[in-house]
Every structure is written in structure tokens, then in C-alpha cells.
TrEMBL record:
Protein name: Glycosyl transferase, group 1 family protein
Coiled coil: none
Keyword Transferase listed: yes
Keyword annotations of the record: Transferase
Residue ranges of domain Glycosyltransferase subfamily 4-like N-terminal in the record: 12-173
Record domain Glycosyl transferase family: where: 187-348
A Pfam match: Glycos_transf_1
Statement: the UniProt record of this protein carries the keyword Chloroplast: no
GO molecular function: glycosyltransferase activity
Length: 373
């Protein structure tokens, strides 16, 4: 098959990791020709070029990374899909779908779109927001097939009036599958916190939708209640400056900011919990990565998260009740042995429910069916 992956986001996160997992399943498979189009000079584009440049069946192409070049990008993409004659075009993100649908006018290429999260969170509830929501549904309906990563997103789209059939394909990953020894954990904690601390790690974009204001509140509150809880924060984003200033202003000594880190396997297996205070999520890849190396997650009860996390493999809480999660963090700091039960169940659940094989199989089945339509 001749497949195009289109992802034009400027950040590097779970969506981009999903695409990488799909690409990995096609590496050196000469029966399939893969083209990936991303925004030039973004973190995702750089990762793709570094990782797949030597694969003869995977080609990485970049569109112009400028809002002023949208029309130019539409015509560049249109010429590409006319010339390459793809069997399947797999679209990721609203921006990608908008540009694709304009480029595909009167060409009739078949496409599948994966909806990774709700996009309405950042929109104001005014006329412009309503118009954008309606435009999103209109553009989604123009795809041949629609896939959601969680049941909660499917329900949301159906409520918004999406008329097509929607399939849910939960994200799956290869996993980090790396368990750290006690000695390795001690060395890591000496470097980044204290050897006897309960260490929580945040990995993700520093944006409102990812719950950065919630994270700051949690860090402040727990610093007053328990001095033996520390945080590592990995990521970049539009609220990074605000985050840095707030940490400095409040003189919070229990948090270290490490910026974007491509190799999270160098950090995640050595922590006690992953914390995810998001306001909206689909099926977060980072939670699955944590579970694959027996790290339980403290996560907000939003989106697709409760489809992964429960009281046996992690901790769920509501963002409007941060005092509850402060008590839970304090409880686990004082009862460390109980964390082992969460760790064991998280690892078991990952291997039973979130392994990469079902994920890859379902998408390849969709591709075959789509290419025959």
C-alpha cells in the first residue's frame, strides 16, 4: 500500500508518538510505501528525520512552518497527493484536516482521521467558538472513516451531531518496559531530589489544557503539608515562562524543571508516580508508558483517563477537589509499601489491555478496507 500520514501540529506529544508507533510497524517493510508530512522545523519533524532517514520505504516531507503560508501549503499538499496517488491518507489533528480537505477538493482521495482529544476546551463559548465547532464537525464528516482513541471522545462527537460511523481504537504502545533497581532509583533521586523523597514526575506540554495551573496548585499545597514530596517537570509550552516565574516567586524548592526531554525512559522508571492534572485528554500515551515500567499514575478524572486508570492501578481525582489528591499524595508518602500494589497492577493492566499488537492490527485492517472502497 501507498500510505500518507499527515500531522501538522507544532508541538510534540501523544499524537506524534502514536504516528511513530505506526511508522515503526512499517519500518523496512518494502511492500508498503510510507510518506509523512509534518510542519518543517518543528520538534516532531526533527525527530522523524533523525529516526527514519535511513528507512528506504519511509519518506519525511515538511510543509512551510508559517501561518502566512497556509495557501502555499494547501497547493503543495494538493500537488503531492495528485502525484503520489495514495491508497490511504491518515489525517491527525483539526489543522491537518482543514488543510487536507481544501487540498483534496475535486480529487476525491479516501481518508481516515484519528481524533485524539476534544478540541473545544480552549474555545470561548461565543459565536466564533460555535462556528469553529460546527466547522470541525463538517470537516470530520468529509473523511471516509473516523477513529476515536477513547469512548468519551466518540460520545462527545455523537452529541455534536457527527453523522458518520465512528470506530474506537484505543492507543497501544511498545512500552518502555524498563524496571529500575533500588540502587538505580537511589542514585537518580540523589541527583534530582532527595534519596528518601516521594518523587512525582509530570511529562507533557505546559499549557492550560494539560492542567498546568492545577499542577502549580498541587505543588504549592503539598509543599506546605509534606516536605518529603518532590516533583520533576518535563516539557515546554506557552505557559513555561509563567510556570518558571511562579516557582521562583513562591520559592518552591520541591520542584525541578527539566524542559523537553526526548528520552523519557531516562527519567520515568525512577520515579514513584506519574502525575497528570489535565483538563482534557484522550488516551494519554504517557500514562501507558508509565504503566509499562510499573509506574502508577495520579490523574484527573477527565476524557479517556478513567478508561485506563482505576483505584487498583493508580489514583483518580477531580480537578475541582485538589485537597483530596493532596491527602492521597501525603498518604502514599507515609505508606510507601502500598504503592507496590499499584505498581504491580499497572504493569499487569498494560500488558493485558494496552499492548501495541492489537492497536497496529486494527489500523492495518482499516487501511486494507479503506483501500478497497
Amino acid at each position: 500500500m501507498n500510505i500518507l500520514y499527515l500531522s501538522l501540529g507544532r508541538e510534540y506529544g501523544g499524537t506524534e508518538k502514536v504516528i511513530e508507533n505506526l511508522l515503526d510497524s512499517f519500518k523496512n517493510d518494502l511492500k508498503n510505501k510510507i510518506t509523512v508530512v509534518a510542519m518543517n522545523n518543528t520538534r516532531f519533524f526533527q525527530v522523524l528525520k533523525l529516526k527514519y532517514s535511513n528507512n528506504s520505504n519511509i519518506e519525511i516531507l515538511g510543509l512551510l512552518n508559517s501561518n502566512k503560508k497556509i495557501i502555499r501549503n494547501i497547493f503543495l499538499l494538493r500537488n503531492l497527493i495528485k502525484f503520489k496517488k495514495f491508497d490511504v491518507i491518515h489525517v491527525h489533528s483539526i489543522v491537518s484536516n482543514l488543510i487536507f480537505q481544501l487540498a483534496n477538493i475535486r480529487l476525491g482521495n479516501k481518508s481516515i482521521i484519528t481524533v485524539h482529544s476534544r478540541s473545544d476546551f480552549d474555545r470561548k463559548r461565543n459565536i466564533k467558538g460555535i462556528l469553529m465547532n460546527n466547522l470541525e464537525i463538517f470537516l470530520l464528516n468529509r473523511n471516509t472513516e473516523i477513529v476515536c482513541v477513547s469512548n468519551s471522545i466518540k460520545e462527545y462527537l455523537l452529541e455534536k451531531g457527527l453523522s458518520k460511523n465512528i470506530e474506537v481504537i484505543h492507543n497501544g504502545i511498545y512500552g518502555i518496559n524498563q524496571k529500575a533497581s533500588h540502587l538505580q532509583i537511589e542514585k537518580f533521586k540523589v541527583k534530582y531530589s532527595k534519596v528518601d523523597s516521594l518523587l512525582l514526575i509530570y511529562i507533557g506540554r505546559l499549557t492550560e489544557v494539560k492542567g498546568i495551573y492545577n499542577l502549580i496548585s498541587i505543588i504549592k499545597k503539598i509543599s506546605k503539608k509534606n516536605k518529603n514530596v518532590d516533583f520533576l517537570v518535563l516539557g515546554e509550552g506557552e505557559l513555561k515562562l509563567m510556570f518558571d516565574e511562579e516557582i521562583e516567586k513562591k520559592q518552591l524548592k520541591n520542584v525541578k524543571l527539566l524542559g523537553f526531554q526526548n528520552q523519557i525512559k531516562d527519567y520515568l522508571p525512577y520515579c514513584d508516580f506519574l502525575i497528570m492534572p489535565s483538563n482534557m485528554e484522550g488516551i494519554p500515551i504517557t500514562i501507558l508508558e508509565a504503566m509499562s515500567c510499573s509506574i502508577p499514575c495520579i490523574a484527573s478524572n477527565v476524557g479517556g483517563i478513567p478508561e485506563i486508570i482505576n483505584e487498583k492501578n493508580g489514583v483518580l481525582y477531580n480537578n475541582n477537589n485538589l485537597d483530596y489528591i493532596i491527602e492521597k499524595i501525603d498518604y502514599y508518602e507515609k505508606n510507601r509499601k502500598l504503592i507496590d500494589n499499584l505498581k504491580n497492577q499497572a504493569y499487569k493492566d498494560f500488558n493485558e489491555k494496552w499492548n501495541i499488537n492489537k492497536f497496529i492490527q486494527k489500523y492495518k485492517e482499516r487501511y486494507i478496507l479503506l483501500s478497497k472502497k
